[in-house]
Amino acid sequence: MKLAAIDIGSNAVRCQISSVLHQNGKVIFKKVEYVRYAIRFGEDVFTNGYISEEKIQKFIKLLHAFKLLIDVHDVDNYMICATSAMRTSANATEIIQRVREAIDMEIQVIDGVTEADIINKVIVNFLDDRNYLHIDVGGGSTEFNIYVNREKVASQSFEQGSIRHKHGEDSKELWDSMRRWIEANSRKNHLSRAVGTGGNINKIFELAGKTGSKPIYRKQIEETAARIASMSMQQRITDLMLNPDRADVIIPASEIYLSAMKWAKLESMIVPTVGLKDGILHALYERYHPEERFITDILS
């Protein structure tokens, strides 16, 4: 079986095609194709309130390319999910209709709670018996989840992300609201470690020289972010080999991760390098096997 997930974020659109394998009682999602394109819908939406015609036309071409890729790989099923930028855009309904008419693909615009629930499908596989604060920072929104004994007990989505923060599209009231939610849940649930997901924390983890399942410490995140912040945009691209769309949002994103860890008084974080696209693949598999309880693994 092959499944495909398309994640339409505020910064980039991702398409992943994976084969589903069964091995020693596990369901394994083996990546066979992965394409990421920096569409940057958030730059339009968080400034003007809508997505420009130029980007709409490019977006339809991109989805058409993904559809051809899905067809070539004989994919059994796929799902397209759009998050914060499309949730906010004044012309989202028009875009969805144009995509439907042009290439016969259906986009689901999901709310923050649904986004967190989908990510939850894969995150639980990386947790132990500690109590965790899961921090998922996207371009337009941040999702917080609390896990106790590998069960999610609380969840909250905030319209705050790396692109919004970069452009100052946030407020003291929003930051205070996030802080109060985390502090209250941290005291209530005795949190001991963070889980970080999102492209920016993945890159910070890599730049800090971390690999595998070992945690990164808050001090290491702070030191890595300070090193990046001291460099010009061109140095980040040439010396650190960051994509331009990563180089300009990695510091705003790091400020959200670090603030959340400080509010929760957490010193360490695991970074499983998975996200919404992986959760979408799990959700698709569950459609075929709704009664099956399974352990999953992700292979690059």
Short description:
This protein is an alpha/beta fold.
Largest sheet: 6 strands, mixed
Mean pLDDT: 93
The proportion of strand residues reads 15-25%
Runs in which pLDDT lies below 50 for 5 or more consecutive residues are: none
SSE order, one letter for each helix or strand: EEEHHEHHEHEEEHHEHEHHHHEHE
Structural class, from helix and strand content?
alpha/beta
Q: What is the number of strand segments?
A: 12
Please give the alpha-carbon distance between the first and last residues.
17 Å
Tally the helices.
13
What is the fold named in CATH at topology level of the largest domain? Nucleotidyltransferase, domain 5
- The CATH superfamily of the largest domain is identified as Exopolyphosphatase. Domain 2
CATH arch. level architecture of the largest domain: 2-Layer Sandwich
**For this structure, what is the CATH class of the largest domain?**
Alpha Beta
- Describe the strand arrangement of the main beta sheet, using strand numbers: 5-4-1-2-3-12
The number of distinct structural domains comes to 2
Gyration radius, rounded? 19 Å
Morphology call: globular
**Relative helix content:** 40-55%
